[in-house]
Task: structure prediction
Amino acid sequence: MDFTPRKLNLFLLFKLPSAYLTGVRAKSIDAQKCVIVVKHRWINQNPFKSMFWAVQGMAAELATGALIMMKVQAANKNVSMLVIKNNARFTKKAKGVITFTCDQGNLVDETLQKAIETGEGQTVVLTANGIDLAGDEVASFDFEWSLKLKQK
Result:
């Protein structure tokens, strides 16, 4: 799969339909960063008139995971990836359009290369920050990913 926003969004539709139905969409992806947006709507709201935390988590996880998926595909290696730990901090109600960005592509490159060279599992902590239209951070998610070369 080419890693374009359109193809990522089709991936969501077929492989992660709950993310797609709640409005999570890829906006951009390149070697350094991935940008995911989600708009507060009826289907993704909580009882407190803001975006449900789990929808924010899906967008944040995609921002980190899509970077890894793109780089694993480019390496042309069979690498397993798994979230092994997650931490989130919420600082403001999420309303309107929230943009989650992970800009740690270089860290993914380093970790993936080490996993391929050593054949041993490696972990990397990637952060996706959610920013509203006013420029305020509404949430920050840390995902600890495990990357391991699959043995044939």
Observations:
- The two ends are 22 Å apart (CA to CA).
- The chain has one domain: 5-149.
- The chain has four helices and six strands.
